[in-house]
Structures are given as structure tokens and as C-alpha cells.
Amino acid sequence: MFQMIFIGNRFNQIFCFLLLLINCSTGIGQEYGQHGMVVSSNKLASQVGIEILKKGGNAIDASIATAFALQVTHPEAGNIGGGGFLVFMNAKGQVTTIDFREKAALAANQKMFLNDKGQLMQDSNHESLLSVGVPGTVAGLFLAHQKYGTLAWKDLVQPAVNLAKNGFIMSWGLYRDAREIIALDTSNAFMKTYFNNSKGQLCKPGELWKQAALAKTLELIRDHGQDGFYKGFVANEIEDYMKKNGGIICKNDLERYKAIERPPVKGSFNDFEIYSMAPPSSGGVALIEMLNMMEFANFNTIPFNSTPYVHLVAEVMRRAFADRAEYLGDPDFNPDMPIHQLTSKEFAKKRFATIDLNKASSSDPLKFGHPYGGENTTHFSVVDKDGNAVSLTYTLEYSYGLRRGSEKLGFIFNNEMGDFNAVPGITNRFGQIGSSPNLIAPEKRMLSSMTPTIIAKNGRPYLIIGSPGGRTIINTVFQTVLNVLAYNMTLDQAIESMKIHHQWLPDFIVYEKNLLSPDTKTALESKGHQLIPVDNLGCLMGILYDEKLKVYTGVADSSSPDGAAIGY
Ligand code: GLY
Fold it and tell me: Residues lining ligand 1, judged by CB closer than 6 Å?
């Protein structure tokens, strides 16, 4: 639906508010919590997190329990076979992050996905066992617990063990996924039985779905912490499976994996402080660069969802994504990345000055760009009674990752190696990118777009937000933040409103098809943009602090079939 919001005088603000009420009447509303809130893509997992908060656990404890629960109840992206990032702001306003991104195996190399002619072997970086990165999730959650957790580790893993062992009711969303996956690849033996019930048949909606092998893996993690995954039975089985099926991850890779605590990237937008994930995610740097550029915009002349809005936002995205492609990669392999420059106001001013408000710029196809694969990932946001907040995004890369795993372990492997630049030196207008910061090297972390973010006001968490969606993550988080901070939307309005995506190359604007008017589309085309409709962008899970009511509002994006905000 076409939404138009005028920022300006009082009359206009009332008018926009009324329009928003009309346009968002299909929204999913907000949940309220005075003492805490968990918002995730699965109601059972949110419930696990809330129970931990009620038992006196802090936001880190609740996040660990929620993350393990999502492995069981949201296996599309909830994972122990993948990796991700956690941003933590404590009640004193101090912020840190945990990087548990997957890394390349020791035996990985720049040419591993190329044929004799130096060309990418089709889909090998997403479809073969070589596409599995060394998983980081268990190490990341364990490090978060060691440094900042308060409850016993075993009590945080146990709810996930219970869900896997005792089962939970199969939802229609999961059932639909199961049918689609099985129909898509009938030769995939692992996925064919993955969703089975105890009678060996596909579990139907309303039936209990138990995951016995996964329960055993989780018990090992519960009893032995990080070592329960990176050593012993699980590590042996991963190595065995890889050897038998053409993968390269070995026990040494697993034993050497370390999650890393890193400082956040920090920026500001008017009076708000922005904290987000530093490389190896590109999300935080690009988000801050875009918000910095938007500070130079005159919002009085840019009604939300108008032609000037879409044009400007797309041009800002184009520039940030070009910089992302040129400069960003794993910081441990690229010590000289110009992060400070890219997130500075002076740089944004120069970048903004290159935008022609009447005409689309051209993305230079001879330089850089990127396809926007990686559709699935999941985000959750947590806040506790003391005001500690966690913003966590983790992923298997594709929906259900590689769709392969060991039946003895019961979890799915990621295909995250696809996030590296696969063909050195080749960048083209189709979005292939070959710049050096993100080329494959042994033990290197692949560049991510995950953007777990905490926005603070007066030193306390104000907006906790993130999304799945591959490269679209950065832009959907960016627009949601802008909707709240610049367009004064409530959180459900901000999440449900129209989103666009531009990533420099390929050079087009992707837009949510039912939310942009035909007139606006035509006007944008006359400025030189090419537009591509999609059903939906992003699946945001957020928490906003209502300063007047002194209450947290939580919103799970209505595009999430099983998502839920639960407060208390
Ligand atoms: N696999 C999606 C991302 O890390 O951006």
C-alpha cells in the first residue's frame, strides 16, 4: 500500500500519523514489557529466553538459551552449524561484540571453486561440501557466557535439549518448508528424513517433532561446553563425514576455532549513538556510512516513500555498497581497512555531495559489485530488567544452509564459504566481485552483511534491531532505523513499511511490490533507475524503548510465520 509521510509542520505530522494508522492497520502490533523482552523468529525460542530472564538471568543468558532453542525450533537459520555476531550493551552503556563468524578451513585456497580455466564451477561455492565454513556459533555463545553470563551454562542449553528430546508441535511454516525442500531435491537423503516423526514419516502440523540425534549433540555441548562441539564425538563425526563426502574440514580446524571479542563500530545520527558489528561484517560500517549521509538530507523535502525518498535512499545505498566491496573483509587479514574514514562525517559529506537529486548515478561495472544471495539468516533482540541489551544475528547462509549434515549429529551445515569472493580479480555488472579484501585464505572469515545493531539514547539502549536477508540486511536495518529516528514511526510501522534494496551492482532497485505506487515507479524510471519487484524484504526483530511510558515495545516482523515478541 502506498504510504506517504510528511515530516514538517504539526498539521503535516498529524496527517502522516493518520495515514500511517490507515496503512499499518494490517500490521502485527507491538508487545510491551516493563522488565524484559525477547523478540525472535520463533515463539518457543522467545519463550525460552523470557523464562531465563524471569529466573534472574541477564540478556546474555537469555540470548544463549534463545540461540540454542532456535537451532531446534527454527532450523532454517537457527544454528549450531553456522556462525554470527552478537552486540552487547550493558546497563552502564558499555558496548562490546562477539564475532563467531565461520572461517575457512586450513586446506581452503583461492582457487578451490575454480575450474582449469579459472572460472567459477557453477554453484560449487554454495552447493558442495567445500562450501562449509568452520562453524562458530557454539564458541561464540560459550565466550559470551564466560565473559558476561550469570546463570550456569547447562541451564541455558537444557531448554533446547528438552525441545529436541521431548519434541514440539510441528508448525505449518516448518511443514511447508519440509515439503518444499523434499520436493526440490528428492535425492537429498539427509533432508528426506530430517523432518520425520518417530514412525519414520514426514511430521505433520500438530504432531510432535522430536530430534533425538540433535538432543544428544546438545547434551554434549551442555555437559562439556565448547569442547562438546569442537572436540570428541561431534568433532570426530564432522571430520568423518567430511572425509567420506568430499569436504575438507578436519578436527584440527575445529579445535583451532576461536570466537573473538571485538569493539563495535560506533557512529551517531543526530542525538542517537549507533553501535553495530565491525568487520568481518560489513553491516555496521555500511549502516553508519549511510546514516551519516542521510544527516545531510533535508527531510522536509523528502516525504517517506516518495520519489525523492526512494531516489535518495538508493543513491546512498549504492555508494555504501561500492565502498563495502572495495574495502571490507576479515580484519585479521586486512589490518589497514579504512574503517575510521568510512564511518566519518567528513567522508559522508563528500559522498553525499556526489548525489544528483534528479538523476540516477551509474554503478561502474568495471569496478566492483556483489550479488545479493544469502537469503536466510535469523535475528533476535533481547533486553533484561537492568537494561542490558543484546542484538544477535546468526546464519547458515542459505535457508537451511547446505541442506546436508550427519544423521548422527542432527544439525545442518552452513554454506557460508559462498560469502567469499570466489573468483579473484573478476568483477562485472552481473554482480560478480573479485576484490582482494574478501578473497579466500585458510582460517579467514568471509565478509558478512549481518547488522545486529543497538541504538542508544542518553547512554541506554533505545532501539535493538536486526534482520536476515543476505546483503539486503544492511539496507532493511538502515531503513528501519531511519523510519524510527528520522520519520518518527512506531516500531511496528517502521518494520512493516516499504523497503528497497540497492547494492551498487547489479545496478537496480529491488522494491516491495505492493508498497510502491505505480506513479512513483514511473517517476523513478524517468530518473534513470531500473526497478525490480519482490514480495518482501527483511524480517526484522526489534525492541524500542518508549521513554514516555518507560516500557519496552517488541515487534516481530509479520513476514515471519512463527516469530514472536514476548515481554514481561
Ligand atoms: N550469509 C549472510 C551474511 O553473512 O551476510
Answer: 374, 377, 395, 397, 416, 419, 448-450, 470
**Ligand 1 pocket: which of 101, 276, 392, 450 to mutate (most atoms within 8 A of CB):** 450
Confidence tier at 434 by pLDDT (50, 70, 90): confident
In angstroms, rounded to a whole number, what is the distance separating the alpha carbons of residues 548 and 326?
43
3-state DSSP assignment of residue 277: coil
Mean per-residue pLDDT for 473-486? 98
Please state, in angstroms and as integers, the Cα–Cα distance from residue 291 to each residue in 29, 225, 553, following that order: 26, 39, 23
Q: Which pairing describes strands 531-534 and 509-512: parallel, antiparallel, or unpaired? A: parallel
Q: What is the pLDDT of residue 11?
A: 35
Distance CA 109, CA 309 (A): 43
Q: What single-letter amino acid sits at 316?
A: V
Split at pLDDT 50, 70, 90, the class of 212 is: very high
| Range 306-315 average pLDDT | 98
User: Measured in angstroms, how far is the CA atom of residue 127 from the centroid of ligand 1?
Assistant: 16
Residue keyed to cell 566481485: 433
Residues belonging to the active site? 377
Q: Is the overall model pTM greater than 0.90, yes or no?
A: yes
**Cell numbers for 405:** 549434515
Residue nearest (by alpha carbon) to ligand 1 atom 2: 470
Amino acid at 118: G
pLDDT at residue 34 is higher than 60: yes
The per-residue pLDDT for 28 is 55
The distance of Cα 413 from the centroid of its chain, to the nearest Å, equals 17
Tell how far the Cα of 357 is from the centroid of ligand 1, in angstroms: 31
Q: State the Cα–Cα distance between residues 479 and 482, nearest whole angstrom.
A: 5
Residue 566 bridge partners (DSSP)? 38
152-191 in b/e burial notation, b at 16+ Cβ within 10 A? ebeebbbbbbbbbbebbebbebbbebbeebbeeeeeeeeb
SS3 state at 519: helix
Query: Where residue 364 falls among pLDDT bands split at 50, 70, 90?
Result: low
Question: In whole numbers, what is the pLDDT of the chain averaged over residues?
Answer: 92
Q: What is the grid cell recorded at 371?
A: 550479488
Of all residues in the chain, what percent carry a pLDDT higher than 70?
92
CA distances from 46 to 37, 53, 69, 205, 208 (A): 9, 11, 9, 20, 19
* pLDDT tens digits, 172-197: 999 999 999 999 999 999 999 999 99
Pocket test for ligand 1, best of 412, 414, 419, 446 (most atoms within 8 A of CB): 419
**ω before 280 within 30° of 0 (cis)?**
yes
Nearest-CA residue for atom 3 of ligand 1: 448
Q: What is the mean pLDDT of residues 444-450?
A: 98
Using CA atoms, how far residue 565 sits from 36, 243, 266, 278, 318, in Å, is 11, 42, 27, 27, 33
Only one residue has cell 554470527, namely 84
Residue type at 33 in one-letter notation? G
State the pLDDT at residue 9.
36
